Every structure is written in C-alpha cells, then in structure tokens.
Amino acid sequence: MALPSPFELAATALQAPVETIRPDSGLNHHPKWDSMGHLEIMMALEEHYGIPITDATVRQFQTMTAIIAHYDSIKGP
Fold this sequence. Notes:
- By secondary structure, the protein is mostly helical.
- It has one domain (about 5-75): ACP-like (Non-ribosomal Peptide Synthetase Peptidyl Carrier Protein, Chain A, Orthogonal Bundle).
- About 55% of the residues lie in helices and about 0% in strands.
- Helix 1 packs across helix 2.
- It is globular and about 35 Å long.
C-alpha cells in the first residue's frame, strides 16, 4: 500500500481540500489546523507513517515542512 502524500494526509485529517494545504501550512496557519486539527494530523501520522504520538512528536510535526521532510525520509523509490 502506497503512503499518502503529506498533502493528502493533512487534507484528509483536516477534512479540507488538498489544494488548501501548502508547504507553509501548519498549526494555526491554516483555517482548520487548530489544536483539534493537529490531533487529527498526529493520529494520521501515527497510522500511515508510524510516528508515535509523544510530547516531542506533537511539537516536532506542527508544520508541513516537518511532515514533508519525514515523508521524504521514509518513502520508497
């Protein structure tokens, strides 16, 4: 099963159109990416990318830049 792209993952978690998710989107920098939206994104990251939900990862993955960097490090060829 192919991994969803970071943009697809965030859009699905936030229930937002994928075209509204940009590389500079992040916590409190997207209309739906508030604290509850961030929790949805964290659960999606855990499910699809294997990122455990910890205090550290909650702080680390507050931006699309961080999510994209992690995706780039785990995706297959």
